[in-house]
Predict the structure.
Amino acid sequence: MRTRTLPGTDLELSVVGMGCWAIGKTYWGDDVEDATSVEAIHAALDAGINWFDTAPLYGEGHADRVLRDALKGRSERAVIATKIGVALKGSSGHAESQLDAAHLRSDLEASLRRLDRETLDLVQVHWPCQHGTPLEETFTTLQELKNEGKVRHIGVCNYGPEALDELTNYADVISLQTPYSLLRRELEQEHLPVIERRGLGVLAYEPLCRGLLTGKYLKEPTFPDSDLRSRDDRFAGRFFVHASRVAHDLGKLARRLEVSTASVALGWVCAQPHVTAAIAGAKTPAQVRENAQAHRFIEQPEAVEVIEKILHRHRRSRPQS
Ligand SMILES: NC(=O)c1ccc[n+]([C@@H]2O[C@H](COP(=O)([O-])OP(=O)(O)OC[C@H]3O[C@@H](n4cnc5c(N)ncnc54)[C@H](OP(=O)(O)O)[C@@H]3O)[C@@H](O)[C@H]2O)c1
């Protein structure tokens, strides 16, 4: 497994990290079993994946607990990245960003307890604030938590370039976690200037476009209501057609290289020079093992070129967003 230094830190991250959203057992269907999730985390460690992205939101702490138990006695030093600042509101438990000092502190304390750590390697703000808390309040609080030793490094997710530029004035923010894949490349147009100016690391989430880029969908799939993909427009209509064409051609390349389609799609993300690491969600050991192969693409610029040609070939079927 290849590693890269997360800029501004001493963290050497495997270029493929494991995302723990699905193992929280909410939003991703009814087929997630804790025992299999633990096996998947062990398979990740065996494959050289040394960091895990979790959040209190993932099953209201369930993903944290599964991760803690899986790492116990296996790799207590694995890097844990979490994402705080979301609260569940009302009787429906609707998730909203809440970034005032009191909530950030209590969310972090609860995370430390659940994950059984005294400090967390990377603590990211999960979403920008929906309630008008000033950036200054949020990020000076995170800086205080870092100064207190509860947070080793501060990151953010999902912020636009302007806010990113401002918030880096209030805290030692070192990374942006953002969606990035062969089907979603806004990062390149929108964020790269500020990322370069501020020297930030990039952690790419949803690199498989929730499974669309694995090539496993030969026709429009149906999902149970418990799976957020039942409400994801990308799994139907023109976007699905485009994604299927891209995945089909990635599959041909994958067969030539004797790897899986998923690892080709993920490999393209890992090979991008502005990406520090990709966060691949997975439910099973087999998925993790396939995804871990993606690191091989960093040494294969010719394969990355072929992938760009595939995208170019299908550019006309891509719906305009
Ligand atoms: N900061 C944020 O706001 C934010 C938002 C989203 C995600 N994230 C993080 O990023 C991580 C990754 O994103 P994501 O999980 O949304 O999407 P993703 O990584 O693009 O897709 C993950 C899903 O694809 C399927 N899959 C994975 N590997 C596969 C393989 N080799 N073959 C076939 N299917 C495979 C699995 O679901 P099935 O088996 O059910 O198909 C898996 O749950 C999350 O777990 C989370 O840690 C962060």
Remarks:
- The mean pLDDT is 95.
- The pocket of NAP is lined by residues 19-22, 28-29, 53, 83, 126, 157-158, 177, 205-211, 214, 216, 260, 262, 279-283, 287, 290-291 (CB under 6 Å).
- Residues 237-257 form the longest helix (21 residues).
